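Submission sheet (multi-component)
Chains listed below:
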Amino acid sequence: MSEIVPALQWHRRVTDKLATAIAVACVLLVMLPLAAIFAYLVFRGIGALNLAFFTQIPRPVGETGGGMANAIVGSIVILLIGSLIGVPLGVGSGVYLSEYSRGQFGRLVRFTADVLNGVPSIVIGIAVYALLVLRQKHFSALSGGVALEIMMIPTITRSTEEMLRLVPSSIREAALGLGIPQWRSTLSITLRTAMSGIVTGVMLAFARVSGETAPLLFTAFGNQFWSTRLDQPIAALPLQIFVYAISPFEEWHRLAWGGALVLIVLIVLTSASVRWVASRGFVEGSR
Amino acid sequence: MSAVQPQQPMGSAGNPETLGQRLRVVPRRSSTPSRVADVTFKALVWVCAACVLAIVGFILMQLIQGSWLSLRQFGWKFFTGSDWDPVNGNFGAVPFIYGTLLSSLVALIIAVPLSLGVAVFITEMCPRSLRGILSYLTELLAAIPSVIYGLWAIFVLIPLLRTKVEPALGSTLGWTGLFTGPIYGVGMLTAGMILAIMIIPIISSITREVLVAVPHQQREAALALGATRWEMIRMGVLRNARAGIFGAIILGLGRALGETMAVTMVIGNRAEIAKSLFAPGYTMASVIANEFSEATDDLYLSALIEIGLALFIVTIVVNVIAQFLIWTVTRGTPRRASV
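Outcome: structure written.
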């Protein structure tokens, strides 16, 4: 017996070490593209950023200089429209799911939100095109905002619901026990308690859609000139990056890297601040 | 009130079911105005929730309406024909379906082992201090927009593949027929690789969630029987989490099928069916992205919308299967926010 066991142990120990080594190798292999992407973004992007980048609109092909000011402003406009509609709708349906839903309807809404979360963004683009662009007869900033809003809703709904569920029942009961009507208690007690978690969800949704390109292709469409009108095509940072990246012009490539750096800094700042807010709030499970 | 219902443990994570039941036995409603406000508020949030249903319904409706012309004209032939000829009004979606499936398959082959390795390392092997930072870094990979992946692939990955990786693959594995033909840099392999990088965070974070949901007793029992750490992971953890891991993989597949921008930028956009992974291809999502705003006649537009409809239905089916599989493992534990 004592002669067999060591041989077996040797074999098993090597397998164990091998498995650990493979897992470490996997982690390193996954970190490699991450590091490479960020390194290139900073390396190529920094050179493109200057005052003109943030204050000027693109120059015609062949001229150097110019910037992406119109795309940055356009992105802000579209994201604002998206948030203005998407945040109240998402938070509202999250409140419904957590505070009022019983039985089938709630389950259906929850399921549908998960389904909507998995719908490819380009398909949402087509649907909004059919609804708004075809009717208005031209591409518009409004339709871009609506497309982003549809993408934000499921994320906000589900995270709001989960954050509200973390609020202990005793808090709700205390409020009701004091004679406060339920709507008041939901708005100023339950929602306020879960506020940091809900903000986290909203910011994550915001970060997620701020880089979306596919749903804007045939809604916001893009624009080489200044426009902040809601019924006209509008430039957007991700769209502009796409157009510049596949163009054959060196100068446009430079701008694309600059735009990508600005976009990623925006997203990383948002998600980092989300982590910071979440780590301070009472909601532990919110990563 | 507690006389009506058995006492609930204080602070049990919000259970609206019991709260609702308790509300019904409150003896006297307060004054009428607040009653009205209550009903209004409830109606308001109900409308919000109904909006979620309405949006999905409306997407489906718009897609069916938009593709009606093509549905009527081609019927099932649309999904068996391989001829995509906008000039003569002849549309078959097979090259795009093939491209979508093949690029997603390549992505899965690369991403699945890597994501499982990462998930196992983070949940079972890594020191506690590294856990947070590693999961943050993998999630950061998910936060990078698709268009930036595409940009990086065009200027970094494609030159690398064209000059180094693909020639090497061609000379060593050319005999398989998968790595032959002219090397462009763009093509199925590139698309599969970029897709793999994009779906790794999804697969690994859901797998992590599933692994965490496996009861601790399973691990302890395996270790108590003298298993090494790897044997414990294999027998105690992975085996119990099988269905959930499969669900995570399918969820990753769902994301890969619908991914648009990065793929459009690197796949070469040629409606051909080639066996070689070096050859350019086309996917369902990227044909929509490229040709939608150029589609001039109604039938062309309708055919593109029908591709969107097919994509919509396929991703829904894939997601439902995945959610179900993940649920079978995690049903006991509280769900976390979706990715």
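Remark: The longest strand of chain B covers residues 84-85.
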